[in-house]
Amino acid sequence: MCGSLLPLFAVVLSGCFAAGDPEGSAHVDGSPPSKIAVVGAGIGGSATAHFLRQHFGPEVQVDVFEKAEVGGRLATVTVNHNDYESGGSIIHSLNLHMQEFVKQLGLKYRRSVAGKTAVFNGEEMILEETDWYLLDLFRLWWRYGISFIRLQMWVEEIMEKFMRIYKYQAHGYAFSTVEELLDSLGGSGFINMTRRPLSDSLLELGVSQRFIDEVIAPVTRVNYGQNVSIPAFIGAVSLASAQNNLWAVEGGNKLVCSGLLKMANANLLQAQVNTISPIQSGEALQYQLSYTSAAGTESELYDIVVLAAPLQTGVESGLHFQGFTSPFDQLPREYHSTVATIVHGYLNTSFFGFPDPRLFPFASVLTTEKPDLFFNSVASVCPVNISAGFRRKQPQEAGVYKVFSPQPLEKSELKTLFRSYYSVQVTEWKAYPHYGSNQGLPPVELHQNLYYLNGIEWAASAMEMSSVAAKNIALLAYHRWNRQTDMVDQKDLMHRIKTEL
């Protein structure tokens, strides 16, 4: 969760330094870059380092700057000698980049532990999962009609189109903007989905308001801490993550980040980047990064720089640009605050209408949007290392729970949710953008050889979205450096790929 600078979405050099054309950024002599910097070592930054190494080869020096912990928003906390995910915790089975990372790194899938889910409206459970799939389907049909079928078909259609990105990237194609990437996948429909509220799109599909309020809203609240006014595209990503075919990495998802950095042979610098400045030497443009580490303040020159940390308002980074002005009339953006509270204690099942905890069958409880509900979800969580004999704690036993809430929980609120507790650990995340309609999408190319990864989050925020953006930037940087314009922003890519085959 690093980064904060006001409208820095696109930059143009000022003063005696003229704005450059990104397509004119290649070195005419054909020499490869000497040094590349990546600022940020979360999943986006570490994946970028990995893909840059793939495309630019073993000779280029790849420096990765991280002021805090490797992993960024993939993080764990320790309770009773066990680690639990406090950040990004689930990965969809269609996330092909994440799957490939796990395979290449020799990591393992975490063993899943079954658990049922319910939806609470502040007074009672209005939706309860059972042990019988057909009964659950019947209950959905009885309460909501065919809304859930319409929703499922809509999400599957979007995911099927999104999967095209893997073919495009496998053939080496890149995109200079998030809009171009989305247009290549789903045409203007995908772009419009980033500008239209989820609720409007679902009502147009024929999904009932009741289904939106009681099923869709709880999912968006637990995944993004926001309501159904979020854009339809991010809503579709959120709903895809509510399916059963999810997984996680044994030992913690952050192991992917450290593993990718090692596999890329990247030089990890535990340092805060303070300033980025353009340096013109003849025809060559480089960027000087000034940074502070335990050894003091230093500076270094780089041929290519990738910013893999949020640059919007509401996220502190301490990063400043010297010699840059912004030509875009972009409004400052904010990241949404979500509080993850890890509690070791006894859940107060009476609050949910179950005075006897032995009769409480749910591992997780989502909530509808009600003014008096102070939390978005509460769930019994498993450690990142699950032994063969592991079993989930029963509600009458002391267990470890993760509570998502918009604000840090007051002591009275903790006492409402828990009969008693041994420990409480709070992590306040600037976890994802605060989504609104007609927000626009930040650029990928800030200037020649200067790229911004996290703009993809304004289309959708997820581990795989960052990985897709990382691959795109590595390809884009490679093609720009080598003047391979025919590999950037090409139209009708499905047809081109078929003719190539």
Question: Your description of this structure?
Answer:
The protein has 501 residues and is of the alpha/beta class. It has two domains: 200 residues, FAD/NAD(P)-binding domain; 262 residues, Polyamine Oxidase, Chain A, domain 2 (Alpha-Beta Complex), CATH 3.90.660. Helices cover 30% and strands 25% of the residues. It has a seven-stranded mixed beta sheet with strand order 8-7-18-19-20-17-21. Strand 12 and strand 13 form a beta hairpin. Helix 2 packs across helix 10. The longest helix is centred in the C-terminal third of the chain and has 19 residues. The N terminus is likely disordered. It comes from Anabas testudineus (Climbing perch). Belongs to the prenylcysteine oxidase family. Pfam families: NAD_binding_8, Prenylcys_lyase. One of its GO terms (molecular function) is prenylcysteine oxidase activity.
Q: Give me the CATH architecture of the largest domain, please.
A: Alpha-Beta Complex
Supply the helix-strand structural class.
alpha/beta
- Shape descriptor: globular
Q: How many distinct folded domains?
A: 2
CATH class of the largest domain: Alpha Beta
Could you tell me the radius of gyration in angstroms?
23 Å
User: How would a textbook summarize the main sheet?
Assistant: 7 strands, mixed
Counted by DSSP, the helix tally is 13
CATH topology grouping of the largest domain: Polyamine Oxidase, Chain A, domain 2
As a percent range, the share of strand residues is 15-25%
